[in-house]
Model the fold of this input.
Amino acid sequence: MTDDEALQKLAAAVPANVREVCARLSAAGHEAVTVGGAVRDALLDRAPGDWDVATSAHPDHVLALFRHTIPTGLQHGTVTVITGRGIESHVEVTTFRGEGAYSDARRPDHVTFGVPLVEDLARRDLVVNAIAYDPAHDRLIDPFGGRADLDARRLRAVGDPVARFTEDGLRVMRVVRFAAKLEFAIDPATEAAIGAALPSLAKVSRERVSDELRKLLAAREPSRGLVPAARTGIIATIAPELAPQIANADVWAARIDRAPSETRLAAMFAPLARTTVDEVTARHVDREVVARVAAIAKALKFSNAEAEAAAMLVGAAHATAWAPWNPAEVRRLLRELGAKLRPLAIALWTSAAVRPNSPLVAEARRVLDAREPLAIGDLAIGGQDLVGDLALKPGPVVGQILDLLLTVVLDDPTLNAREPLLERARKLALELGDGVH
Done:
């Protein structure tokens, strides 16, 4: 990409309100540039996210120049300038800064304002994120070769990679996430520095780690980030229970690529499923595995709903290893999973490299396509029918009878008809000691 082509892309991409903010700062005698991910994405012809502005102006000067502002993070030099209505009108303006030590491996102990732009860019994580554009003067600032890295589809740390990663442990998560998101290769020297930063990563809040994982799993091919994450010890650091179960990182990550987005968290934890099962265990959701996976996912600060759904899917992941499935057994397993998870379980089973087209998958698809009854709500009669038609007293016995009727229907769906079920319910009521009135 030539200089002219790069400038044309950036000039066309910068939003009008961001350009106006930079113009006002420039007119007041300050340097003002757009920097970071939006510049990178515009040069890659990707849709940019938020446009951040960096400036030589002190935060107090920014507050004085603009009428509507929010002091978002003055201690770090950040002011949000409000240029109109709605969140899209907010522009974050941050003063050029140098940084002190990172004693908590996440935030600098102190910042210094008034440094040159090049020094401000030097504190950033990756070279492709350290490119700046001055819209007021149509000028590109790329002191570390970020455009060359974009052309080479390469990720390099700015400066000394060990220093960059150890001062902020989250940066190693960011580099593998960007490897997946941008589909770039990690430079060997940058990857080699990740190991030294793992103690810093261990100090990072699990909320920040799970946020990076979510973004990584949302990529077209998460394997581009997950394989180096496993290779360098990142997975062992953030999920020590999972890492020893990953026999082959390429196979593990390829399955995650194949899995639909809604099942990728489960696919990530799939190595925790049992590899050998007996005849009884094979036909049911493995509750021990469910509890284990849920605990690990919650420790990583995934939501309860995310953790529990992934855990249930992993608890059923072993099922494809068992061949002799009959239709009634498949219906019972699908009943355990619940309505929302049934199609996801089939998708997860299909993503497995071993027996993706197992008899279980084929039969489960047929059961769902045929809408065969799998829950009490699918029965041709309900509690009101038992109370009304059979004059049963409302209470626990009604629920017991419905459970027993479902068992019958799971064995033979053709019995799911009103009159046959009422007749069976009448007999069951007599057996349970709550006679028909």
